[in-house]
Amino acid sequence: MLVYAILELLQHKPLSGYELKKRFSGSIVFFWHARHSQVYPELKRMEKQGLIAGTRVEQETRPAKRVYAITADGERALKAWLKRPVALQAVKDQMMLKTFAFHLIEPQEAAAQLRHHQRLHQRRLDLYLATRQELEQRCGEIDATGDPIAFWNAVTLGYSIELERSYIAWCNWALERQRRFNARAVEANANGAPAGGPTEGAVG
Predict the structure, then answer these.
(1) Looking at the DSSP assignment, which residues form a beta bridge with residue 135?
(2) At what angle do helices 148-190 and 107-139 cross, to 10 degrees?
(3) What's the CA gap between 167 and 86, in Å, rounded?
(4) Mean pLDDT by 10 residues, the chain (204 residues)
(5) How wide is the angle at C-alpha 144 spanned by C-alphas 138 and 148, nearest 5°?
(6) How many angstroms separate the CA atoms of 76 and 49, rounded?
(7) Concatenated DSSP letters of 141-198
(8) Would the pTM of this model clear 0.90, i.e. be above it?
C-alpha cells in the first residue's frame, strides 16, 4: 500500500524523498504510517517500474536532491487502485489484546493502563483538531469549499477525529464498568459470597 500512498502525495506535486518523509510524519499520518527507512527503497522500486520519474535538482547551500514526479503510468495505476473496492481490514490492536486478559493483573494496574491509553488518544485528538483548524484557516469552511483536495482531506481527517473520540469514550466506558465490577466484588466478599471466576462460555 505504500506505493499508492506515495503516488497520492506525488499527484499533488513533485517531492523529494525528504519531503515525502515529512508528509508521512504530518499530513497523512492520521490514516497511514510509513517508517522513514521504507520510503527511499520504495521510491527506487517505483522509478524502475516507471510509476514515477526522478530529477536531480541542484541546491546552492545544500547537496543536490532528487525530486520525484508521478508519471502517466503512475497516474493510471493510482486511478485503477482507487476504483477497486476495499475489503474489510484485519484489526490488530495491542490495547485490546491486553484488555482481553486484564483479569490477570491487579484492578488498579488495569485502570492505570486504561487512563494512560485515554491520555494518549486525547493528545492525538487534540493534534487532529488543530490540523482541522489549520485546514479551515487555509481553505475556509469545508462544507462550502470548491476545492476537491481540501474537501477529501477534511473527510479523511474527520474519520480520524471520530475514531479518537470513540476510543476516548470507550476508555471512559471501560473504566466506569470496571468501577462497578469492583464494587460488586467488594460487596460479594463482604457478604461472604464467592467472588466468582471467568464466566462460563465467555470468549477465549
Answers:
(1) none
(2) 160
(3) 23
(4) 90 91 68 71 95 92 92 97 91 92 96 97 93 87 86 89 96 97 88 60 55
(5) 70
(6) 13
(7) -GGG---HHHHHHHHHHHHHHHHHHHHHHHHHHHHHHHHHHHHHHHHHHHTT-----S
(8) no
* Joined grid coordinates for residue 59: 541546491
**What single letter denotes the amino acid at residue 17?**
G
Nine cell digits for residue 175? 473504566
Hunting for cell 490492536 — which residue is that?
A: 93
